[in-house]
Amino acid sequence: MRKVVVNPETEAAPAVAELPRGRARLLGDGILYAAAGLVSASQRHAATIVLALGGQPMTIWTARGTVQGELLVVRPLVRKRLLARGVPLVLIDLEPNHPQYRAFHGVNPWPGVAALDLARHAEFRHVAQAFYQGQLHGSELDQSARWAIERVASEFPPPPPLDLRVQQMMTLMDENPCCSLDEVACAVGLSPHRASQLFSKCMGLPLRRYSLSNKIRRAARFMGSGRRLTDVALEAGFVDSAHFAKVWTQTYGASPSHFFPAQRTAMDDRALPDWIDWHLARRPPGVGNPEKVLRAAAVAGAMPE
């Protein structure tokens, strides 16, 4: 097994107090999560950034190698095992609709994990430390985290511009989670097969997996709420609680019962925006306008089949 070990030389890390329960914050296109330690086996649709606090390195194993470090970045869809038992950490999942998501496909697929030099990302550690300790929250946390994420993403080659039709498909599914594949394909003037091919080529993620990621994001709103998991599953669009539990466990390495009880996770829900309004404000010009998307498809030489 190939082994890649990085031990960044940084200034002495501050002491980190024990966190009695996990702390989470939804970014609309990402999830921040802090814990006193974590051991999990998972395969996420999201790109993941993990920062160990207190100067202790973590280990991530994949089928293609082992990486150690204090600041680790994982490509989407990498099957991995994270070993950070007793290591205080902050983890950020960047959902496929995050503007920096595709940059993290620049992480070398062998082994699918990169250890970054923590000395180059002191501001990221500052934000993570403040979130972990409950000193940074609400919109101020959102803005600080986005800036720090951009700096991490700059370590990798910028992706090419995203096809307008793919942006349209994402917008349709974000705004209408019940939208079928046929409806999504029709909106951009493609057959379902061609729409799926285009989406996978541009995003590195199957279209149906993106739809599933939307359900997970909707379910994540209820972390720490104490609501019955059956209710959460139905609210998020899963067929039943068993399906929800299976998908969540595969994604996050632990069952929903580890995250959703109020005594297990404290949610920072200060100044949360309305996510539909937030998506509408962020989408590029022309997205949401079917005629403009179809004109772009004509220019690209991909008219309806």
Low-confidence stretches: 1-13, 290-305
Main beta-sheet annotation: 7 strands, mixed
Class computed from helices, strands and strand pairing: alpha+beta
Mean pLDDT: 86
| CATH class assignment of the largest domain | Mainly Beta
Total beta strand runs: 12
Radius of gyration: 19 Å
Pfam family, one: HTH_18
Organism: Ideonella azotifigens
Protein name: HTH araC/xylS-type domain-containing protein
Keywords: DNA-binding, Transcription, Transcription regulation
Provide a quick synopsis of the model:
The chain is 36% helix and 19% strand. By secondary structure, the protein is of the alpha+beta class.
Describe the structure.
By secondary structure, the chain is of the alpha+beta class. It has 2 domains: 151 residues, Jelly Rolls (Sandwich); 137 residues, Homeodomain-like (Arc Repressor Mutant, subunit A). Helix content is 36%, strand content 19%. It has 10 helices and 12 strands. Strands 11-8-5-10-3-2-12 form a 7-stranded mixed beta sheet, with helices on one face. Helix 1 packs antiparallel against helix 2, helix 4 packs across helix 5 and helix 7 crosses helix 8. It starts with a strand and ends in a 5-residue tail after the last helix. The N terminus and C terminus are likely disordered.
